[in-house]
Amino acid sequence: MFKFDFDIDDIDEEFNESIVADSQLPTAQVEDHPQAPFQEHPIQQFLDALPTLISYSPLSIPISQTKTTVNLVRRDLFDARFQLISEGTFDGPSSENDVPDEGDGDTRPKSTTVVDPSILNYLDAPSDLLPGVYEGGLKTWECSLDLVEYLESSGSFSGYSGKRVLELGCGTAIPSLYVLQRVLSEPPGSVSAEETHIHLQDYNASVLELVTLPNVLLTWYLSSASSSYRESTEDAASMDPSSPGELPITDELKQAFLTSLKAHNLHIHFFSGSWESFDLSVTGGKYNLLLTSETIYRQESLPALIKLLQTGSAQAGAVPLDSLISELKLSVTVTTEAAPAEPKDPQREPSRPTYLCLVAAKVLYFGVGGGISDFIESVEKHQPRAGTVESVLEKMAGVGRKVLRVQWPGLV
Fold first, then answer.
1. Are the CB atoms for 138 and 81 separated by under 8 Å?
2. What confidence score (pLDDT) does residue 123 get?
3. What residues form DSSP beta bridges with 268?
4. How does pLDDT run across 260-288, given as a tens digit for each residue?
5. I want to staple 273 with a disulfide (CB 3.0 to 4.6 A). Which of 15, 36, 82, 282 is the partner?
6. 270 with 213: CB under 8 angstroms?
7. Could you give the 3-state DSSP secondary structure of residue 44?
């Protein structure tokens, strides 16, 4: 049976090895658990929870279409596990003694961390997935790399500044780290004066604290956006994206990170809880880019996921973004001998595309019955309005994997 592999290279090979039948799990682990409620976690809360040192390893993602490589870094799984064990962190429901501070005027759900030693039992369980308790977010799943490959090779966005991005079931948040890397590579204020939002959602608040926020911080430190801090700080740690290392965490580094986000007009928010309870009115509304990977393995969770993908897509029904880009690229190749273009009729112009909804998954998840065919069927039968699904990237080696583009025709 599969257990956590705490080697540096922890990307999964076979999803089905990490799932065991309910009969193989202890009784306490298979009984029904209440769905975790929607909660927003202030970035400062997770920064304050960081240890004084985090270790990381490189993650190189080959882009076959362009023969290039995207280089990221991520926190080591064994390092996150050590923090989890040492702190006894556990996501639990709010207690009766947890009352909101009525004086702060903030009505958003507040995060609550309940220390429960039983979390160590979940770590030692024979499965990476305990539905309703832990959804595998500490590990990097290979379909998340496929999303990066598609985003990099398709050129779907010329830039991400000024966009609203949501990753559902983010875990280690590899696709969002790529987006963040792109945003931070642009000098502050050079492209867009609009706010850029990157919203990261995972079922488990502990996952957001232990790997998501640390990976965001590491991505910033690797980028040119941290150069002023590194150049002004004596003995600042160097970071080689091709080698493992350690990053000392200081108050000065945290403050430089927050200052840099503000300079880039970049807002990073963290949300935990179930998809059923995800509240778009709290998060600021619809998104230009919605991403999710390895999240369709349970059929019973599909309705909530699909509903959120649909309601969260900004101006769904517009011309798909990458389709318009392809048309623009094609128009550039028209020769000068071509007939002059007719004046454009604003009434006939397609609405500006504002969303891209991508789902990366394996063709079939053995042992649980979920897979791409079930997801497509659910999207096409979704009510009150059905969607369409197109495969935009495929991996045939081993258990087949695909990146799917979901569109919602007819929505305004």
1. yes
2. 53
3. 198
4. 999 999 999 999 999 999 999 999 999 99
5. 36
6. yes
7. helix
Residue 130: how many CB atoms within 10 A of its CB? 16
Q: At what angle do helices 174-184 and 143-154 cross, to 10 degrees?
A: 30
Tokens matching residue 170: 């983010």
Beta strands in 64-104 (DSSP E): 68-75
Phi-psi group of 273: left, alpha or beta (phi > 0 → left; psi -120 to 50 → alpha; rest → beta): left
3-state helix, strand, coil in the chain (%, to 5): 35, 20, 50
- Tokens 């990157």 sit on residue: 198
Contact of 291 with 54, CB cutoff 8 Å: no
Rounded Cα distance between 247 and 175, Å, is 22
Q: Measured in whole angstroms, how far is the alpha carbon of residue 184 from the centre of its chain?
A: 17
Please choose, from the candidates 143, 157, 150, the residue with its C-alpha nearest in 3D space to the C-alpha of residue 392: 150
Contacts of 346 (CB under 8 A, 6+ apart): none
Alpha helices, H only, 31-76 = 43-48
